[in-house]
Design goal:
The protein has 8 helices and no strands. With about 190 residues, it is mainly α. The protein starts with a helix and ends in a 14-residue tail after the last helix.
């Protein structure tokens, strides 16, 4: 694989592009568009998650890899939970502001409490297209989070040390002379 940094930069760019494309969705968009947008983000996220493990393993001394792996898994899981809560808070606030601009406060609270499936029964038929548009706007505004945070990660990653994952052979191993495997430690002697 060699240098892992360039692949992780690509992964962050894919997540950023996917999040950015998701900010362009609207109620009448075809499924092929928003599914394709999610593919960009999904490829980027899966690459970033896996490559972060490779980066950690190539950057740490061998005896610290188990600690690094558990720490990395904890950070990934915790950050997913934190960003889920942030996304929910942003959505609810934007929903309150956006629908509050076109509907009375009691209707806004009913929409927030009941969810999107009951919107049609809570507003007049004449107001429904505007409310759906504002609801859609609230959803798309949440996608600014996955569009911006990978861009920040991309910039931080540019400052990381470039470490190759290819193992360097010792002069003895390169010549093939004196190679023997230590059965207990699994290292070249």
């Amino acid at each position: 694989m060699g240098w892992w940094n360039r692949f992780l930069l690509f992964a962050e760019a894919m997540v950023c592009i996917g999040g950015g494309l998701l900010t362009t969705i609207y109620p009448d968009i075809s499924g092929s568009h928003w599914v394709g947008y999610q593919i960009f983000g999904g490829i980027g996220y899966s690459l970033a998650t896996n490559l972060s493990h490779i980066a950690m393993q190539s950057s740490l001394p061998q005896d610290l890899v188990p600690l690094g792996a558990t720490t990395l898994l904890t950070i990934i899981s915790t950050s997913c939970a934190i960003f889920m809560a942030i996304g929910q808070a942003v959505f609810l606030k934007r929903l309150q502001v956006n629908i509050g601009a076109v509907a009375p406060e009691n209707v806004v609270n009913q929409i927030i409490n009941s969810g999107v499936t009951d919107v049609a029964s809570l507003v007049d038929v004449a107001e429904l297209p505007v409310v759906i548009q504002k609801y859609s706007l609230s959803v798309t505004q949440v996608f600014y989070i996955p569009a911006v945070t990978p861009a920040i990660s991309f910039l931080i990653l540019l400052g990381c040390k470039w470490i190759s994952t290819k193992s360097k052979q010792s002069p003895v191993a390169a010549t093939g002379v004196g190679e023997k495997r230590d059965a207990e430690q699994g290292v070249m002697m």
